[in-house]
Every structure is written in C-alpha cells, then in structure tokens.
Specification:
The complex is a heterodimer of chains A (about 300) and B (about 300). Helix content of chain A is about 75%, strand content about 0%. Chain A contains twelve helices and no strands. Chain A has helices spanning about 1-30, 35-40, 45-55, 60-75, 85-120, 125-140, 145-160, 175-200, 205-210, 215-250, 260-270, 270-300. The model of chain A has no long low-confidence stretch (mean pLDDT about 85). Chain B is an all-alpha fold and about 300 residues long. The longest helix of chain B has about 35 residues, at about 90-125. Chain B is elongated. The N and C termini of chain B lie far apart (about 55 Å). Classes of the chains: A mainly alpha (about 300), B mainly alpha (about 300). At the A-B interface, helix 1, helix 6, helix 7, helix 8 and helix 10 of A face helix 4, helix 5, helix 8, helix 9 and helix 10 of B.
C-alpha cells in the first residue's frame, strides 16, 4: 500500500508540471499587453516599461518560464493586478468559503443521492423507481446557473425566506449549497441504483435472505458495502465537476469564494490571479482523484497495488 | 489410427459482412424507437430542430436583433407572447432564433471533440509506444482541469465570442473521446481478424479505417450525444456570464444572462431561456442513455 501511495504521488508530479506549463502557455496566448493592462490607460510609456521590467516580461521566454516555475515551487503566485496584494494571500482568504460550500453540497448530495439510489433499487420498476430515475436525469441536465436564478426567484423574491446573495447570514449558504448539490445528487443516485441492482442479484444476497436475515440488514450490511466502490469513485470524480459548478454557483449567488474570484478576475483581466486560481483548481482536482484512488484501495481489500 | 485435426474456426477470422452490419443498424434503430425516454428526447430535439430550421423562415419579417427602445421589458401580451427584454427584443422570437446559436455551439464543439479526439485516441491505442505515452500525458493534463474551469481559462485566453466559445468547449471535450477510443483501439488490436489483417501486411491506415472505426462507432455516438448536452450546458454558461456570444445576438445563455439583470422586474426573462437550455440538455441525455442501452448493453446502468 505504501509503495502504491508513493508511486501515485510520483506519477502526479509530471502531471502537475504539465499543468503549470499549460497555464504558462495559456497566459502567453492572452490578447493585449499585460503590462499595459496593469499600468492602466493613463500610464506613460515609461511607466508601462517599468511595469514590464518589474514583471520580467522584457526577459526572453525561457527565462520567464524558469522564473515562473521557480516561484511556483516557493508557492509565490505573484501580485494581483486588481487587488495589488499577493495572489496567494487573496486566494487563501477566499478558500474557507468555497470549502464550506463544497462540503455542504457534497454532504447533501451523498445523503440524498445514496438514499434515493437505494430506494429506487429495492423498489425496482415501481412508480417510486420511475420518479427517482426521472429526477436523477433532470438533476444531471440542470444548468446550475439557471437553477440558482429560479431558486432566487422562488425563495428570495417571491417569499423572502432566504437571502438572494452574499454570505452575510447563516442561512445564506442554503440556496447555493442546494443548487451546487443538485447535479451530484442526480449522478450519485443513478450510480447507486445501478450498483445496488447489480449486487442485489448476487447469490450471497439470496443466501442471506434465505437464512432469515432481515431485509434492512441485508440491504445496508451486505449489499451496500459491496455496492460502495463505484459510488465512492463517482463521489470522488464528482468533486471536479463540483469545483467547476462552484465557479458558476458562487457567481450567481455572489458567494465570496475562489470560484467567484476566478470569474471576477477574468473580467478584471487580472491575469496573475486567473493563473493562480486555474492552478489551484487543477491541483485540488489531482489531489482529490488521488485520494479517491487510495480510498478505493482501502474500501476494497481485494485491490492490492504493489 | 485416425488422428483428428482440431477444427479451426474460420468465422472468427472474418470481419462482419456489410449486410450483417446493415441489419444490426436497423435493429438498433427499431429498439431505440421502443425506448420510451429516448423517444421523448428525440421528440424534443425534433421540435428544436424545426424551430432552428424553420423559425427564421416563418418569422422572416422580424429581425431577431431588432431593438425597440420604446418597448422594453413589456409583460406578455398577444403581440409579444412572452413579453420583451431590456433591448425591446421579442422574447419568444429571441428564443426561436437562439436555438440556432445554442444548438450549433454544442454541435460544433462536439465536432471538434470527435474530430481531434477520435484520431488521437485511435493512434494512441493502436500504435502504442512513445506516441501513446505523449498523448496519454497530454490527456492527463487536460483532465486535471474541471471541465468548466478549462473552458473558462481558454475563453479568458482567447477572448469572448462565438468562435472562441466553440474552440474552448470543443477542446475541453477532446480528452473524453481520446480515452474512450484508445481503450476500444486496444481491444480491437487483439481481435483475430485484425491480427490476421496485420499479418497479411494490410497497411495500418486501412486497418484503422476498415476495422477500428466501425468498432468504435457505437460508443463514440453514445459519448458524442451525451457530450452534446454537456457542451450546451458549458457554452450557455459562458454566454450567461457574458463570455460567450455577445448581445444582441440571441443565444440562450446570453438571454439568460441579460435576464439576470432584470430578475426583480420580470422573472420570465430568466425562466424561459433556462427552460430551453434545460430541455435541450435533458433531451440529449435521454437520447444518449437510450443509445447506450441499445448499442452498448454492457454499459447499461
């Protein structure tokens, strides 16, 4: 197991390096002159030149690249063009909001998705199954940005139960967390249903029932445990789309997390910030995929990676 | 003493005949038409296709981008069935014309995904070696970005607009096709009749075209259909945030984004464009699921 962990970590390094290089290339594709954007329209040519020199943009490309990678290794993401403060500090101040939103959403998604999936599987081909399956496909087809707007119209404009935007009250998280969860609820419910149906057909389930084990116990102890693998993988892989969805959801609800910061920074043409955030999203995604794989190996003792 | 020569099954060596393939296609189509949710999806898509193709012909006397600043944010009336938006555009006509933009965005993006992903995946799986290694590392890097983040980063780099949205969404769908086709190519390479063809010295390009492509067609069609839904979701999302097609071109995401600014005055302007996007994505997901059940029963959930 330890060798497997170490090997997976080593394999992640070239991917991380590739991601950093990709972000560097993307930043060079950007239209316009970053020095001019940062200096503002009223800057004199000397000021623009000064900023260009400060940013190292007058250096040859390979020097810029080595400098970029070198600073990344020291976790130095540069200075935000919009805020004027270090990118890393600004991102760090937003992370707790996104973590709170993502964790709440994934909790909602796991609880609703897994129980709906089990319900549909044990009541296969009944109206309950039909309704759950239909709602699941609705969930995965829902544009999060639209769902967010509809919930704002219903709960904030029509009945004033919940705040429409911001993070000022404890109830502020309810609408964005639910919005963000809907896609995952649908997907987790589908995978759980499929996985449970497969396991419920196995001989040992029939044996357990024949021996008189109560239905509840058979479903929760015998079936669910063995159906867990695909469910865990889905939840892990889900986290990536959840992070992507967070960008859209946070912007709809003006939730002050890293997702909204990314969209705002695109509008401000704050390239150091965009670069830092895109890197953050990729690194988080890689880390979560790695954790999913490790958890996978932990849950299923049959899987041994040596 | 008679020695029995073990029978050599030559049928395994023969690729499926043309007629057989034809029959399989017809059977699949009939099965799809019995798949209730897939038929529901097909009906929705047919309605959208009619709106996109015939809408502008029926309403040719209107200009979709026509702005009437004396008639902004009107409530629904017999004259404007869904009211008007902040530019004084008729909301219903916007939606009819918008179907052209949103659906072609999705279609073109998936064309990029298939056009680049399928050949790369085929080469990666079939030839192996350093090409495989290189393509796999590139795929890993692209898959390290959440889909929307990759599309956003590309649009941030390329700038907003119809063409750039197509590129951004298309590029972000490429790795999925590479992965799928690569794994199929690995399987096809092992098939007896493909090995036989290789042993006979049939050129690789011909083997890929004659044997690999027909084998990957079914899963690629399924993935492309499901990716259409995702592409529309992401493209309209970019439009919603003002990074896609620019107003006054009526694209569903752009209409939804404009409506967002007037959400407190007129909820219709956010309700209907969103419904159009939702039903388009839903329809592609239903048809995609149906196709998967019919074409690839192994993947049935």
């Amino acid at each position: 197991m330890l060798t497997y962990v170490v090997r997976r970590l080593l394999v992640a390094i070239p991917t991380l390096w590739g991601v950093a290089t990709g972000v560097f290339i993307m930043a060079r594709l950007l239209p316009g002159d970053p020095a001019r954007v940062i200096a503002g329209v009223l800057a004199t040519p000397e000021q623009v030149e000064h900023i260009r020199h400060q940013l190292g943009l007058d250096q040859p490309l390979y020097v810029q690249y080595l400098d970029f990678i070198g600073r990344l290794l020291r976790l130095d993401l540069g200075v935000s063009a919009h805020f004027g403060s270090p990118v890393a500090a600004e991102i760090a101040s937003r992370i707790p909001y996104t973590v709170a939103l993502a964790v709440t959403a994934i909790a909602i998604a796991v609880i609703l998705g897994v129980s709906a999936g089990i319900g549909a599987a044990i009541r296969r081909n009944t109206p309950l199954d039909l309704v759950i399956s239909a709602l699941s496909v609705f969930g995965i087809s829902m544009p999060v940005y639209w769902l967010g707007l509809m919930l704002i119209v219903l709960f904030a404009i029509q009945v004033h139960w919940l705040p429409a935007a911001g993070a000022d009250s404890p109830t502020s998280i309810i609408l964005p967390a639910f919005t963000l969860a809907v896609f995952s609820v649908g997907l987790i419910a589908r995978i759980t249903r499929g996985s449970m149906l497969e396991v419920l057909n196995q001989d040992y389930i029939r044996t357990a029932r024949a021996k008189g084990a109560p239905f509840r116990r058979v479903v929760l102890k015998h079936a669910l445990r063995n159906a867990l693998l695909p469910i865990i993988t889905t939840i892990g892989l889900q986290f990536g789309s959840l992070l992507g969805g967070a960008v859209l959801t946070e912007s709809v609800f003006s939730w002050p997390g890293v997702g909204r910061l990314l969209l705002d920074s695109i509008f401000f043409r704050d390239y150091p910030m965009v670069q830092g955030l895109v890197l953050l999203f990729a690194v988080t995604y890689i880390a979560i995929n790695l954790l999913t794989d490790l958890l996978y190996a932990y849950v299923d003792p049959r899987i041994r990676y040596d | 003493m008679r020695t029995s020569i073990p029978a050599f099954d030559t049928t395994e060596l023969a690729p499926p005949a043309e007629g057989e393939i034809q029959a399989v296609h017809e059977a699949a189509w009939r099965q799809l038409l019995r798949h209730r949710s897939a038929v529901a999806g097909l009906v929705v898509l047919a309605v959208y296709a009619l709106a996109a193709l015939l809408g502008p012909v029926v309403f040719h006397q209107y200009n979709p981008a026509h702005q009437d600043l004396n008639a902004v944010l009107l409530p629904p009336s017999p004259h404007h069935l869904l009211g008007t938006d902040n530019y004084g555009r008729d909301e219903l006509l916007d939606l009819v014309y918008g179907s052209r933009y949103t659906l072609s965005l999705g279609l073109l993006a998936v064309v990029i995904g298939v056009g680049v992903g399928v050949p790369l995946g085929a080469a990666s799986g079939y030839f192996g070696g350093w090409a495989d290694l290189l393509i796999q590392r590139l795929t890993d890097i692209m898959l390290a970005f959440p889909n929307i983040v990759l599309a956003l980063a590309l649009v941030a780099a390329l700038g907003p607009g119809l063409k750039n949205v197509v590129i951004a969404v298309g590029v972000s769908s490429i790795p999925n096709f590479i992965r799928l086709v690569r794994s199929e190519a690995l399987k096809v390479r092992q098939l007896p009749y493909v090995e036989a063809a290789r042993a006979l010295g049939v050129p690789s390009a011909r083997i890929l075209l004659r044997h690999l492509i027909p084998n990957v067609l079914a899963p690629v069609i399924v993935l492309a259909t499901l990716q259409m839904g995702l592409a529309i979701l992401v493209a309209a999302g970019l439009g919603f945030f003002g990074l896609g097609v620019q107003p006054p071109t009526p694209e569903w995401g752009e209409l939804l984004g404009e409506g967002h600014n007037y959400i407190f005055r007129d909820a219709n302007l956010v309700t209907f464009p969103g419904l159009c996007i939702f039903f388009a994505v839903l329809a592609f997901n239903l048809v995609g699921d149906g196709l998967r059940d019919v074409l690839d029963p192994r993947l049935r959930t």
